[in-house]
Amino acid sequence: MFDPGAGIRSGGFDAGRGVLVATQRGGAPCFRPPVPPVVALGPQPRPAQVPLAPAQERMWHAARLGRSADWNVARAMRLQGTGIDVAALRAALRHLVIRHEPLRTRYPMTATGPAQVVADPTDLVLDVAESAVTEDDLAAAIAEQAAHTFDLTRDLPVRARLLVLGPEEVVLVLVVHHISVDGRSLGPLIRDLVTAYLACAAGTDPDWPPLPLSYTDYTLWKHAQLGEFTDEWSRATHQLRYWANALAGRPALLDLPAREQLSPSPDPAAGALIPVGFDARTHAGLLRLAQDGRASLFMVLQAAFAVTVGAVARSADVTVATAVSGREHRLLDDLVGNFADDVLMRVRLDRAGDVAELLDQVRRVALAAYAHPDTPNPRLKRCLLQDAALPLFQATLILQRAEAPHAPDPASASVLSITELPTGVVRAKHDLEFGLTDHYDRCGAPAGIDGAFCYPIARFDEETAAQFVARFRAVVALLADGYRGPLTALLATTARRRSVSTARRAARVLL
Questions:
Q1: What number of other Cβ atoms are within 10 A of residue 248's Cβ?
Q2: In terms of C-beta density within 10 A (0-12 exposed, 13-18 middle, 19 or more buried), how is residue 274 classed?
Q3: Mapping DSSP to helix (H, G, I), strand (E, B) and coil, where does residue 279 land?
Q4: What pLDDT shows up at residue 507?
Q5: Which residue in 335, 301, 310 sits closest to 437, CA to CA?
Q6: Cross-strand pairs, 187
Q7: Phi, psi of 476 (to 5 degrees)
Q8: What's the pLDDT at 24?
Q9: φ/ψ (deg, to 5) at 183
Q10: Do residues 70 and 458 touch, judged by C-beta distance below 8 A?
Q11: Nearest CA to 91 among 170, 173, 198?
Q12: What are phi and psi of 247, to 5 degrees?
């Protein structure tokens, strides 16, 4: 038996096993697992086949099941200026797709699994159609384009339509599949498009700095970092093992108050939005709680979200989710691609006596989730004792920081005005989904939080969805007002905002 107090006498490296071997004072060897290699992020040698990045796998499998359009990222931009040059806009889009490899990548199934196949720029055929529309027909035309279905095995994951309202007004509808972009891709995407348009309109090629690496380089680096699931000591196996243990024994499905099945059955992913907002005072109160609990604003909101979900589902064991950006390295800042993925947070409300204990639990669970972000959902589902047809999670909350306002580029502002328009298409991939943004003024003071709650209309009617939002708002308001007592008061909170003193007297226990 190994005596921890005996210490280590000597050690060496066993090349046959590839592990460090340490010898105890009694002479018996003990083995330490090898440390996974650290691979530098940079240009990588290209193999014959490039696998999907971990963040891409869920979208690929969803598309294969016929739900490709659920993952469209669509933007409609009204371009106004003196003499919009449609030919230059077409050329700019081509430059954009050539610059960013994910926009010209197909994702076929191969003998070893799905792969990324980047189209050569010389073979590029970009789908950019042009049509004249009236203002009355504009909304319907945008919605039709935003709902386009991509065949990821054959199509390029990008589609553009130019809806011409007049010589000085064109609406560009740009639809990209989520497998090739994430939310943080939109900044460099639109910036590079404007740069390319101004250059093409002037009769030149865009003069932008070269990208430090490609999405393919990132994918190969990520797989080298993670290693193989067949290696029991790899980072990939370590992360999978963490999730399998963390989620073992949880309720497979939350009992949410869904509506009766409609006839005929609507599109299961057709969604609706309810605006959500919190003023600067509430924002400041939440930040105080975060500071007191050594947590982040997101962790406070996620704690409020877990309480609300638990109360509505009448469950003390709640799994909620969020998205992580996946852009830990500065070299990834200007790349277009899908780096973001979901991580799960299992919150045990019955193991927290008051707000402080709940926030501490959410903080620890969130930090652990952030440290294990790379396990693809399809693989994780195969490791859990649940029906594979059930979702890994039903409730998600995403918080992002609003970009600081900046002065427009004088060169572009003088010839082109860009206004974003609604696409008219809402896809609800989860039962309960908050997308929130926190805002700060020029001095860094909290200026409020806004966003929307998205829900599937096949699952919930408008009244039920509004009640859930109202309940979440009430819980957030109590926390911002300084309530720090038992969770029973938060769980019993109704849509009507209560004072802190009233909340402390709440006695109805839902769990």
A1: 11
A2: middle
A3: coil
A4: 30
A5: 301
A6: none
A7: -60, -45
A8: 52
A9: -60, -40
A10: no
A11: 198
A12: -105, 0
Residue 105 makes CB contacts below 8 A (sequence gap 6+) with 116, 117, 118, 119, 156, 157, 180, 215
Long-range contact list for 150-153, CB < 8 A, 24+ apart?
150/63, 150/68, 150/69, 150/72, 150/177, 151/68, 152/60, 152/63, 152/68, 152/106, 152/107, 152/177, 152/179, 153/106, 153/107, 153/108, 153/109
Copy the structure tokens of residue 371. 């440290």
pLDDT lower than 50: segments of the chain: 1-23, 495-511
Cα–Cα nearest to 343, from 224, 432, 216, 246:
246
Q: Which amino acid is at 249?
A: G
Half-sphere exposure in the Cβ direction for 490 (13 Å, CA): 32
Three-state DSSP at 21 gives strand
Per-residue pLDDT, 409 = 58
Both tokens of residue 131? 């049509």
Model pLDDT, residue 7: 35
Residue 182, token pair as written in the block: 């994430």
What pLDDT score does 29 carry? 59
What is the model's pLDDT at position 268? 84
Residue 222: CB atoms within 10 A of its CB come to: 19
Q: Are 485 and 354 in contact (CB under 8 A)?
A: yes
Q: From the centroid of its chain, how far is CA 330? A: 19
Q: Which residue has the tokens 């919605």?
A: 143
Contacts of 341 (CB under 8 A, 6+ apart): 54, 55, 58, 323, 324, 326, 373, 374, 376
Distance of alpha carbon 52 from alpha carbon 123, whole angstroms: 22
pLDDT at 416: 78
What is the model's pLDDT at position 402? Answer: 80
**Contact at 8 Å (CB) between 94 and 104?**
no
Write the DSSP string, 74-116.
Answer: EEEEEEESTT--HHHHHHHHHHHHHHSGGGGEE--EETTEEEE
pLDDT at 31: 63
Task: Quote the pLDDT of residue 17.
Answer: 38
Distances in Å between the Cα of 162 and the Cα atoms of 79, 111, 325 are: 10, 39, 31
User: Which residues are paired to 332 by β-bridges?
Assistant: none
Report d(CA 104, CA 365) in Å as an integer.
38
Any bridge partners for residue 453, and if so which?
Answer: 274, 434
pLDDT of residue 298: 97
Counting every residue written for the chain, the total comes to 511
Give 354's DSSP letter: B
